[in-house]
Specification:
By secondary structure, the protein is mainly β. Helix content is about 0%, strand content about 45%. The chain has a single domain, classed as Immunoglobulins (Immunoglobulin-like, Sandwich).
Length: about 120
Amino acid sequence: MAKIEINRGDSRNIDVTFYQSDGTTPIDLTSGTVFFTVNSSREPDDDTAAAIEKDVTVHTAPLLGQTRIALTSTDTDIDPGTYYYDVQLKDSANNVISSRADRFIVVGDISRRTS
């Protein structure tokens, strides 16, 4: 698990690899959906108040368990502070497998200019 720190309004790619419980055999992501969710609470009742939600269905190397979560500047244009994220896979058999979870820290930015 790794903390993610990002400046408000920045774009970022987060690469994730899913492995079987042995930690070395990749999980086939073909026909699976990866969910990336950022919440202000570590244990929310549901995701209705999620600050960021991304669903990934096209994976960088599905047979190797690799996917990329692309956060846009719009996704990260949220109030600075400490949030919590997790990454989950719903595979083709509807199994849910969690990969990562930790803090998601949004740092205030000095400049808001983009041009």
